[in-house]
Amino acid sequence: MSGESFPPQAGGGDGQTPITAADVAAQVGGRLVGDPTVVVRGIAPLDRAGPHDLSFLAHLRYASWFATSRAGVVLVAPAFEAQAGTPTTRIVVDKPTDAMVGLLARFHRAEPRAAGIHPTAVIAPTARLGADVTIDAFVVIGDDVVIGDRSWISAGAKIGAGSVLGADVRLHVNAVVYPFSELGDRVVLHAGAQVGREGFGFVPRPTGVVRIPHVGRCVLEHDVEIGANSCVDRGSVDDTVIGAGTKIDSLVQIGHNVRIGRFCFFASQAGIAGSTRIEDGAQIGGQVGVSGHLTIGAKATVAAQAGVFGDIPSGEIWSGYPARPHKEQLRSQAAVSRLAKLIRPLERLLMREASEPANGDGR
Amino acid sequence: MSGESFPPQAGGGDGQTPITAADVAAQVGGRLVGDPTVVVRGIAPLDRAGPHDLSFLAHLRYASWFATSRAGVVLVAPAFEAQAGTPTTRIVVDKPTDAMVGLLARFHRAEPRAAGIHPTAVIAPTARLGADVTIDAFVVIGDDVVIGDRSWISAGAKIGAGSVLGADVRLHVNAVVYPFSELGDRVVLHAGAQVGREGFGFVPRPTGVVRIPHVGRCVLEHDVEIGANSCVDRGSVDDTVIGAGTKIDSLVQIGHNVRIGRFCFFASQAGIAGSTRIEDGAQIGGQVGVSGHLTIGAKATVAAQAGVFGDIPSGEIWSGYPARPHKEQLRSQAAVSRLAKLIRPLERLLMREASEPANGDGR
Amino acid sequence: MSGESFPPQAGGGDGQTPITAADVAAQVGGRLVGDPTVVVRGIAPLDRAGPHDLSFLAHLRYASWFATSRAGVVLVAPAFEAQAGTPTTRIVVDKPTDAMVGLLARFHRAEPRAAGIHPTAVIAPTARLGADVTIDAFVVIGDDVVIGDRSWISAGAKIGAGSVLGADVRLHVNAVVYPFSELGDRVVLHAGAQVGREGFGFVPRPTGVVRIPHVGRCVLEHDVEIGANSCVDRGSVDDTVIGAGTKIDSLVQIGHNVRIGRFCFFASQAGIAGSTRIEDGAQIGGQVGVSGHLTIGAKATVAAQAGVFGDIPSGEIWSGYPARPHKEQLRSQAAVSRLAKLIRPLERLLMREASEPANGDGR
Q: Which of C331, C275, C267, C269 is nearest to C302 (CA)?
């Protein structure tokens, strides 16, 4: 069990696209200090960057890393133009972090995309595929499926009968669209995501429980993104709908009949129980649980790990278990942490009060 | 990013099966008010229903939706027979919600099922398949696997060597049965479910940790259902067993050697650590975590997000972190929320008491 | 719904390898009492073992099971050599549990492994495969992928373009390696695990949010194990790195830019948000959530379900929500549970104090 010789190179970034310091400065509109011919091929934080990496210094906190960084070129905020440090080629910009984000596309190595339909794909004769669609190996497409132009269905993905996908949809490998689902344009399903499953609804019968047939749809509107291995159930008597532009991270569960508005964010491992409504622009933290039949108002924020058992008004920040307004939660937490050393004296005091019945009257 | 024109139709339901109001009334044993020839093709809640949708009004809370609903036919409780509202074709039944559930099967469009074995499937020569089995594209079935009559193995599912599946089993797409697992009749694995993996057991060795070989089985008894992307480990020195009729939702983790009784329910994202026993009829809420080597008694209920670190007696309702009887939990929560405004006066009082040592004696 | 006749046999273990009691005694260095010719074929706990099962008695707690156990051979601690019980063939060893673990490999039935490349696999011509590699059915391997000697890629697994895998790697069925990932030697991905996805990073733009291109890598060092359906994102501007020997259970989420040290353990359903660092030997409990940009020190332990919102120093044990040192947490929990019956008297006392303003001064 060695590990020392792996990974082979320290630098981040895909390392494929050489760019000169002068190029970088021009793109970000920065002022170059040092050698304009230095070439970078990747991006890395100051502590791990090598001579062919671009890095950035935006905060004093990282000055000690800058002091000894091996980075070839560093984007620095104006305050750090003359900061002591080994990197001599510096590009001065107002917002180094934003500049860096703007440069990422130049260092990003795109996944290669084949044209057309892989010969191993199994596609129902009644399916209709748009122009310039890519269908990779071992994809299965059921009866009457419709797929819009330029969509890319990666290897091993499955699309059940009757589903309709818009244009520029991307299903990553092994993603699953259950039958009769509807996906808008530019929807992304990451690897292993499952959408359109009949939800967890059962009714008791003399011979045991039986599954409720689900006749509602699973609708993902335009620009929705579903993370790896996340699950979205179809509706039972209503549709499950995820509004346009909403982004969902990995391992999230969305129950049946849930209605999510536009431009919401769900961090990973959140779970939303059946028939809950989440309005536009709400932000749901990681591992949050929301009970069924509730309403989370527009632009509300639910902090990580909160357990939500009641409605949340629009615009409010809630946290904790059971969830309540974040400020109340913080006050309670503070009170509880101060309580620990008060509880013994309090018990003694109350015991003494109880044993001196005359006390209250006799003063 | 438009979104406005998607999804194309507002109504829920699969929209395939036209049924007249008279038909509906006959099936549910209800009394028809209005036009018996109105045809419905789907089901939708009052606020989203269109002229070809069936809807229902069971509670006064939804009366405002009923007032303007476009639903073609509405199942109404007797109290709402004359309720003000646009829908004029009404079917009066005692329990509109139950009636609706009973009708779902008529509106449910079943996933088409091919007969026989898809030519792309890879099936070991030693595998034995029952009568009328469906094996879809890209399925892999290992050595000595046995599959009972009428089972349906969907595309991309994998069944490891030596596994035994009963009759009428349904593996949805990309479901995984690890080698040497045993599934009873009518077991359902949803898409991406993984059962029979060697669990998370390691022992320290001079060269690092090594995995404990798992010789226990993973046994899913009759009528067990495992949700999408859920995971059930096989046993290490014992079996992992899930009792007949137990239903498990999405993204649930069941550790090695866990024994679950009959007719239990597990909501999504619950996790059960190794060697815990959960007795018949227990109900486990969403995101609940149960530590290892515990016992959850028969018909016990564990509320959502509870963290269980001790045994729970039969029939009790527990909640919270750490989990305890729900009533105690509620009392504690109430006390804590009242504490916040008492903590300052309490601290002042105790400080005063502490600074007046004579007080206790001198009265 | 019968269930009674399933599963067909009560004993655990794979049941394939007959071993005599004398053999068992020799292997564990124990002293045999009873019939050396008794043959066992599997392993089971005392309460479920049959005449051909080996079992063990290490603790008085299980003496009642031992009293009536049907086990053919039982490993017993010295104190139990003469314990009352039906099993007459006993092997006396100092540590029966350790002895049992040492025997597991003899009862373990390995999954059969085919040699070479299955004809259905789709492998890019530019991929380079080491010696003695197994590639099972429906595997897809992208451009420029490198796979080390003796690695085994199970059915339905996908390896994206540019990824590099070491020697003796095991991808279980339907595991996914996104493009440009790096896996060391002996790395194991369980079924449905997804590594190397572009993480959850978006920036606002006038037309909506857009995804940040991720140029950091996803690096799993030697001997890393990733559980079923777990997800590890690639880095955005840094790499995501999981250190050598670290073991991760099922349904865990590791965000972008996270750096995990060597020999850490992550129980199932834990989630680590972006850019957090977890140092060597840390242990993360089930369903733990850790916020982004934090540091969990070396050999720290985070108890199950904890919600971590701040750094944790090395070697400490933290728990609860919000997480803090476990001893403080326990004191708080104890105080809270004692508070419930104090809150009414306390409120009365404070009210009385408040209504007697002279009290504080007049004494």
A: C267
Stated as kind and residue range, the H or E segment containing C39 is strand C39-40
Rg of chain B in Å (alpha carbons): 28
- Within 13 Å of residue B330, how many CA atoms lie on the same side as its CB? 7
Q: Which A-chain residues 227-256 have CB contacts (< 8 A) with chain B? A: 229, 231, 233, 235-239, 241, 243-245, 251, 253, 255
Domain check: are B219 and B132 in the same one?
Answer: yes
- pTM to 2 decimals? 0.93
Q: Name which of A257, A298, A263 is nearest A275 in CA terms.
A: A257
Q: What's phi and psi for C142, nearest 5 deg?
A: -85, 180
Residue B5 inside a domain? The answer is no
Looking at residue A338, its amino acid is R
Q: Does the distance separating the beta carbons of B336 and A335 come in below 8 Å?
A: yes
For residue A48, what is the domain's CATH number? Answer: 3.40.1390.10
Confidence of residue A347 (pLDDT cuts 50, 70, 90): confident
Alpha helices, DSSP H only, in chain A? Answer: 21-28, 63-68, 96-107, 326-339, 343-355, 358-362
Last residue of a domain, one of C107, C139, C168: C107
- Residue C13 located in a structural domain: no
- Asked, as a colleague might, if the bond just before C7 is cis with ω within 30 of 0, I would say yes
Q: Same domain, yes or no, for B182 and B76?
A: no
Residues A42 and A164 in one domain: no
Q: Which domain holds residue A213?
A: 122-326
- The residue out of C75, C107, C139 marking a domain boundary is C107
CA distance B215 to chain C (A): 4
The reply to whether ipTM tops 0.85 is yes
Q: Classify residue B26: in a domain, yes or no.
A: yes
Say if B343 falls within a structural domain. yes
Within this chain, do residues C169 and C277 fall inside the same structural domain, yes or no? yes
Per-residue pLDDT band for A5 (boundaries 50, 70, 90) equals low
Q: Are A185 and A222 in contact (CB under 8 A)?
A: yes
CA distances from C24 to C43, C102, C105 (A): 12, 10, 12
pLDDT band per the 50, 70, 90 thresholds, residue A58: confident
For the ranges A193-202, B5-14, B191-200, C14-23, which has the lowest average pLDDT? B5-14
A130-144, B4-18, C6-20, C173-187 — which is least confidently predicted?
A: B4-18
Do B284 and B213 share a domain, yes or no?
yes
User: DSSP letters of C306-348?
Assistant: -EE-S-B-TT-EEETTTTEEHHHHHHHHHHHHHHTTTHHHHHH
The pLDDT score that the predictor gives to residue C5 is 58
Sole residue written with tokens 């310039």: A132
Same domain, A309 and A271: yes
User: CA C176: distance to chain centroid?
Assistant: 19
Q: Are residues A147 and A97 in the same domain?
A: no
Dihedral sign computed on CA atoms, order B14, B18, B22, B27: negative
* Structure confidence at residue B101 as a pLDDT band (50, 70, 90): confident
Contact C238 A286 (CB under 8 A): no
Same domain, C77 and C170: no
User: In this structure, what CATH number is given to the domain that contains residue C237?
Assistant: 2.160.10.10
Q: Do C244 and A2 touch (CB under 8 A)?
A: yes
Q: Where do we find the tokens 């983790």?
A: B253
Average pLDDT for consecutive 10-residue bins of chain C (363 residues)? Answer: 50 64 95 95 90 92 93 95 94 93 88 96 98 98 98 98 98 98 98 95 80 92 98 94 97 97 97 97 98 97 98 98 96 90 88 68 41
Contact B332 C339 (CB under 8 A): yes
Q: Pick the residue from chain A with its C-alpha nearest to B191.
A: A194
The token pair at B303 is 């509320």
Chain B partners of C346 at a C-beta cutoff of 8 Å?
342, 346
Domain count, chain A: 3
